[in-house]
Amino acid sequence: xxxxxxxxxxxxAIAAAQExxxxxxxxxxxxxxxxxxxxxxxxxxxxxxxxxAKRRGRDMPPPVLVSDVAMVRAxxxxxxxxxxxxxxxxxxxxxxxxxPSQANLRMDLGDREGTIAVRVPDHDFTRExxxxxxxxxxxxxxxxxxxxxxxxxxxxxxxxxEVALYLDCGPAxxxxxxxxxxxxxxxxxxxxxxxxxxxxxxxxVGLAEDTED
Length: 213
Description:
With 213 residues, the protein is α/β, with parallel strands linked by helices. The chain has one domain: DHBP synthase. The protein is built from 7 helices and 10 strands. It has helices spanning 10-22, 44-54, 69-75, 81-90, 124-133, 152-159, 198-202, and strands at 2-5, 27-29, 36-40, 64-65, 95-100, 115-119, 136-140, 165-168, 179-182, 189-192. Strands 1-8-2-3-7-4-6-5-9-10 form a 10-stranded mixed sheet, sandwiched between helices. A hairpin with a 6-residue loop joins strand 2 and strand 3 (36-40). Helix 1 runs parallel beside helix 5 (124-133). The longest helix has 13 residues, at 10-22. The protein is globular, with a radius of gyration of 16 Å. The termini are far apart. The model has no long low-confidence stretch (mean pLDDT 94).
């Protein structure tokens, strides 16, 4: 287990993260919402280790964080107009979009049922990290059903030695998770309302009638 303060040595943090990701181990990293636990999205064993650390099953696959919208287009089979509208308005930001995945996508994230959840975080260091590591499977850095980690020590207390590297960037600015919007149906549907409100989403795209209030 290793802890690095991103604020004092971001280059060392990124170099260490690259080593951990290549090795198929997990790391805790800052995001624009809560702290996340991440692993190489292209290594099934690494994603399995992430799910095991969280005490979570394959029925709850983690989203994938990417550094820019171009990478989203490489992962999704299609990017519908509503996704383009939401992405242009709210990315980088606390918005996770569920899209149809590429048929030949080499990512075993769990039981995805032909979909992938993607996000471009509004955090300069995190996007720089993603440019160095490539797409990461990232979920909130907590054990399932326990509170998300607002500080790196919150994550340390819950995940301990199951994570190889902890990157400390200070307390989360606002410990509220991202809003999740499903774009695989006829109309967008909010699955979880987080930092971005239903009203913000509805002002941009038409929502399904059964969307979350």
